[in-house]
Specification:
alpha+beta; Ribosomal Protein L9, domain 1; Ribosomal Protein L9, domain 2; three-stranded antiparallel β-sheet; 23% strand; elongated
Length: 213
């Protein structure tokens, strides 16, 4: 297994070190990136000494930057930003919300947040709210709420409207019951008329028989 390279940084590299720092890096990172771009070289006492002043300036800059970021993190606690986006009737966005969108909105609202500080695992693709992490370095972290709202009024289909019977269907059911009752009444009336006719005919036959005798 190849040993790590020990190099002197000729400029400040985020998440690695400040100018004038002596760091250990993987051989591939050194050969393919740092050395070809003149960002580091083999350390010597003379070169380390020559970079002391530049390193002091870098430390002051980092200290100031950290203080500014701490203030921004404190201001952003509990923050909610609103993004208006076009979507379909189911709330699905036509264009996803990305780290860049969130960063741009934060800058508009007065927060100097670079896109790299927005930690968004996946783009937001639906209307709604989502917690998004803002992180500087390793220990300056906060969460904000990103509320994605539609650019128009959308009517989501309600389960109640699909399960409840419509007024028209209830009216049809009631009219069907009324027609059944009416038909029953008609049939009962016909039955009574038939009985009456039979009684009348029987009475006539009795009177005819008596008159003949």
């Amino acid at each position: 297994m190849a040993r790590n390279y020990e190099l002197l940084l000729l400029e400040t590299i985020e998440n690695l070190g400040l100018i004038g720092d002596v760091v250990k890096v993987r051989p591939g990172f050194a050969r393919n990136y740092l050395l070809p771009n003149a960002m580091a070289e083999a350390p010597t006492p003379e070169k380390i000494e020559s970079l002391k002043a530049a390193r002091a300036l870098a430390e002051a800059h980092v200290s100031k930057q950290r203080a500014e970021r701490e203030a921004v993190i404190a201001r952003m606690e509990g923050l909610t930003i609103n993004l208006i986006r076009a979507c379909n009737d189911q709330g699905v966005l036509y264009g996803a919300v990305t780290q860049r969108d969130i960063s741009d909105q934060l800058i508009l609202e007065g927060y100097g947040i670079d896109m790299r500080a927005v930690r968004l695992a996946n783009p937001i693709r639906r209307i709604g709210t989502e917690m998004v992490t803002i992180q500087f370095g390793r220990d300056l972290v906060c969460e904000i709420t990103v509320a994605v709202k539609p650019d128009r009024i959308i009517e989501m289909e309600s389960p109640a409207t699909t399960s409840a019977p419509s007024r028209a269907s209830r009216d049809e059911s009631d009219s069907s019951e009324e027609s059944d009752d009416a038909s029953d009444e008609k049939s009962d009336g016909k039955s009574d008329d038939a009985k009456l006719d039979r009684k009348t005919k029987s009475a006539r036959k009795g009177r005819d028989k008596q008159s003949k005798e």
